[in-house]
């Protein structure tokens, strides 16, 4: 039976009945990086340094050194990323069980609301309305907030920071609590630079998505793209990060298997 399932998947991929959708943003020096107040440590931007390019430094090969913060571009957040998850078992990139990197996705389309209000917050009422049409969010699945934010190609517009801090959509504290306690999701994903709303530093609790998800041994995905190519329900995400020993997060080529 197991072999038949995999054979059917391979056939569906070969025939195009199942599409492979790339949900990752390109990673380059211009990739926006979250900025913290100057009193805190800062994540460095992506940097690529050429080692050789078919030249005297290496006549038959081309390769590069790279440097970047763990949480740069499209990336995966591990539970150890936040203080609420620091003492949990198997909370780092190298210790998370591999099977947890493959899970179904629920895509909640809030693009119109986010276009009208960059500080839009996903609430339990929004989730309930979505479930009334598409069915219950299953335990162990992802909830992805589709906001249209990935279409902001200018880094300043993407970060959307003002004198009072950044303005970008995310989940309300109540929505995080609902998804963790009532739906037991595997994690929350967003098109924005981080999983929390831009103004979440002022919420109670601050940064509720990070605090709530990682404190419950769940994950985050940020800076996703192409969510408009996924159905509301029925796609399967592959979210394998780099296996960094003690790692708190990693750039990730997030892939979705979706029915065409």
Question: What can you see in these coordinates?
Answer:
This protein is of the alpha/beta class and about 260 residues long. It is about 20% helix and about 25% strand. The chain is built from six helices and 15 strands. The chain has helices at about 1-15, 110-115, 125-135, 155-160, 175-180, 210-215, and strands spanning about 20, 45-55, 60-65, 75, 100-110, 120, 140-145, 160, 165, 170, 185-190, 220, 235-240, 250, 255-260. The strands form four sheets. A nine-stranded mixed sheet has the order 1-15-13-5-7-11-12-4-14. It has a two-stranded antiparallel sheet with strand order 2-3. The protein has a two-stranded parallel ribbon with strand order 6-10. α5 runs parallel beside α6 (about 210-215). It starts with a helix and ends with a strand. The mean pLDDT is about 95.
Radius of gyration: 19 Å
The largest pleated sheet is described as: 9 strands, mixed
Terminal Cα span? 24 Å
Give the strand line-up of the largest sheet: 1-15-13-5-7-11-12-4-14
Helix content: 10-25%
Count every beta strand, where a strand is a DSSP E run of 2 or more residues: 15
Note poorly predicted spans.
none
Shape: globular
Strand content: 25-35%
Quaternary organization:
single chain
| Sheet/helix structural class | alpha/beta
The string of secondary-structure elements, in order, is HEEEEEHEHEHEEEHEHEEEE
Look at the structure and give the mean pLDDT: 97
Total count of helical runs of at least 4 residues = 6
